[in-house]
Amino acid sequence: MAVDPSPLALNAEKISSAISNYWRVSITPETTSTQNDLSHLARNGRVRSGDICVTEFQSAGRGRLDRTFVAPEKSALLFSIFLEPKRGSNHWGLLSLLASVAVHGAISEVGGISHATIKWPNDLLINEKKCAGLLSEVVATDKGLGVIIGIGINVDMNNDQLPIPTATSLGLESTKIIDRNLLLSEILNHFEARFLAWESGADQEILREYLPLSSTIGRDIEVTMADGQVIQANAQGLTTSGQLVLASGQIISVGDVRHLR
To answer: Directed axis angle between helix 203-210 and helix 180-199, to 10°?
Structure first.
């Protein structure tokens, strides 16, 4: 265990020195939600692809299915990325899976945590406990459509600070003190390489990288749909656009998955 009691502040200069010029990082000490911040800027034509909003604390962070996400100041890595993909929006379903692979790679490198898995579509688990979540949203801009990917990672939370019993943090699982500046830089570097490949049509390569990391495929699961319907089935695989395929043949685009033991 290596929870840092006094984590370093986020530093835009340090982050920017370790990433390409594609990214532009803006750090704010506190906000309601980085996802909302970028969405507001996008609707008003004040954002461009590669802009990133990062914060030390957000008071109304949002997760998937309208869940809230709140973490003590400096204990998490909280950021949102704005993208204007060149490919049509019908291909954007893979972006959240791509992002989860990027986060997995960075956690492995920076934290020395090689046994993390991905619960469909994009929750990062360590020993079946959630350490990171992603939220992908399409937003209208003055030039058309863009996508915002929000990412929240529990970094320096101790047991008392975890939001739920089924959560964990990188600090609790790693023997290393994790610098959030380095972690964000590595996530962006991993993401950029895969994003550029995806823009060139490398969908199958993304899926081939994702599937071995998945702890959902091949398991019995329970899916709660947006309308409240609950389905129990075996998860068989993914479509080419990243949707979940059940043993019955049913295809799930959006739903909350619980692994059945």
So the answer is: 140
Structure tokens at 156: 């320096």
Q: Which CATH fold would you assign to the domain 216-259? A: SH3 type barrels. (2.30.30)
Q: Which fold has domain 12-211?
A: BirA Bifunctional Protein; domain 2 (3.30.930)
pTM: 0.94
The boundaries of every CATH 2.30.30.100 domain in the chain are 216-259
pLDDT in tens, 52-99: 999 999 987 665 555 666 789 999 999 999 999 999 999 999 999 999
**Does 152 have pLDDT greater than 80?**
yes
Give the whole-number percent of the chain exceeding pLDDT 90.
Answer: 89
Q: Per-residue pLDDT for 233 more than 70?
A: yes
